[in-house]
Recover the amino acids of this structure.
């Protein structure tokens, strides 16, 4: 659930969406989350007897879409520098170790970087627009991930697209 929160919070913030249920009503973000979970997150998970990860995702999706919860995007994007290493970066590492793609997860990081550059995450402490790969050199957050060529290339491509074309166009590019 926390990884899902991060995945939807950054594009939502960049698009000016306030509530999580409103995020899920945005087809670009909800389809991004679904594709990300199905293609890059679930395949890295170890089997748990009696747990169907697709059904669990359906439950999470319905919770995120529930307007009664009244969860906010601003809450979800708090403390990213502590949350990403716990919930997103290990999945990226697992994909890389298994020889799987991490394109959508690299987009999560690029979205966070873009949000930092927009002043939307004052706790990040660093954004380097003229050398965006330097963002990944925050070893206390990314560890050695900034040295992984496949991940870095995806990150740089997404970040450039976010700057040049915006959030909606970038999400469309990932989806289609």
């Amino acid at each position: 659930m926390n990884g899902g929160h991060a995945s939807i919070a950054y594009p939502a913030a960049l698009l000016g969406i306030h509530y999580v249920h409103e995020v899920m009503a945005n087809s670009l973000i909800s389809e991004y989350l679904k594709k990300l979970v199905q293609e890059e997150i679930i395949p890295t998970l170890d089997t748990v007897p009696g747990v169907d990860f697709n059904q669990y995702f359906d439950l999470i999706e319905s919770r995120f879409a529930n307007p009664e919860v009244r969860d906010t995007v601003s809450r979800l994007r708090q403390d990213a520098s502590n949350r990403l290493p716990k919930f997103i970066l290990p999945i990226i590492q697992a994909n890389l170790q298994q020889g799987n793609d991490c394109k959508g997860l690299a987009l999560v990081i690029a979205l966070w970087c873009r949000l930092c550059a927009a002043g939307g995450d004052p706790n990040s402490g660093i954004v380097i627009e003229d050398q965006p790969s330097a963002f990944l050199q925050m070893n206390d957050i990314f560890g050695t991930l900034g040295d992984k060529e496949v991940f870095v290339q995806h990150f740089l491509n997404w970040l450039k697209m976010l700057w040049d074309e915006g959030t909606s166009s970038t999400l469309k590019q990932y989806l289609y």
